[in-house]
Give the backbone structure.
Amino acid sequence: MIKYVVILGDGMPDYPLGELGGKTPLQYAQTPHMDSLVQRGETGMVVTVPDQMPAGSDVANLSVFGYDPQRYYTGRSPIEAVAMGIQLDGQDVAFRCNLVTLSDDEPFSKKIMLDYSADEISTPEAVQLIQEISSQLGSDTHGFYPGVSYRHAMIWRSSPEELNCELTPPHDIFNQEIGAYLPSGTSGQVILDLMIRSSAILPGHPVNRARLRKGLKPANSIWLWGQGKRPYLDKFMDKYGLNGSVISAVDLIKGLGICAGLTAETVPGATGNITTDFTGKARRALEVLQGGKDFVYVHVEAPDEAGHRGELETKIRAIEEIDEKVVKEIIAGLQDFPDFKLMVLSDHPTPLSLRTHTREAVPFVIHRKGAGLSNPRGEFSEAFAAAGLFFEKGHELMDYFIQNNRG
């Protein structure tokens, strides 16, 4: 039985940068193990975000998992809610509830989005704040649920049949005045009222007073976005005949896996940023395969977080850590199996110059055990992959990866 592994570096692709001599961070980073896969495998580009759909990790990873977003996508937050163990009925709508840092300007519409993650607030601090929001703003209609770091959930129970609101991801409006991006639509006022009320509750909380004393940004407001109802995916086993697991620090990827009938693994020390336990994820992937699973999807968020924060050195380091501590480790461990296929790719670019996602095609490489040297000068980069295979429909790449077992 062939073992299948997908390693996804979130947000790795980027634009050429003058300070890197015209190279992208992916080209500039030292990635000998990804390069080796290209030299002994197939490489190309894949479009993971269909036209007219939001360029988010939800849409893109749904494509990479092998599901057509135009058929299955219902929103980001309900996927995360599934991973958090929140039960959603047919009329419930889930929202991502970020803890953010806004400026002190008044009125609310004049505030600036200073940080979409409140300095990547710790989970214990965040839980206290969400519990306070729940006690003061929660109701039979609106429930607040703590998650990890700045990422939480709000559920609108038995929502109106035609819930109509336009919401903006906070990471898209870094350092911008929020007035033009506040909730709109017939249901938007309810959402806006919750956000405004939270901004009166959170600043004086002991957690935020302590953060200010330490020189950290306060989590002084919630920001609601990413709404949707529970998705229903065909089971991965039914599609591909494989049982498997997902390994990620973020609820979005865990939720996608759970919806597809995969197991969401827990890795102590997995944080979703550059401090994550890269090696721990790789070793857990190998343990999953040794335990009898046929497929594992390893997601690493760190390059995306660095892109959103505009941190060039951190993004390069994250790419190199993935190469050295995830790709190298997994390649070595896979040699113990009679046969395997390994795919490395990203979900979308997160250009440092924009600090948000874009919809351009991303590079991928597929390697099978025993493959000979085919691209001796190959490298894992946007430019080199552009001369290879091309998948216009992202969800078809997984079909190709699993079902095309030549060579």
In short: The mean pLDDT is 95.
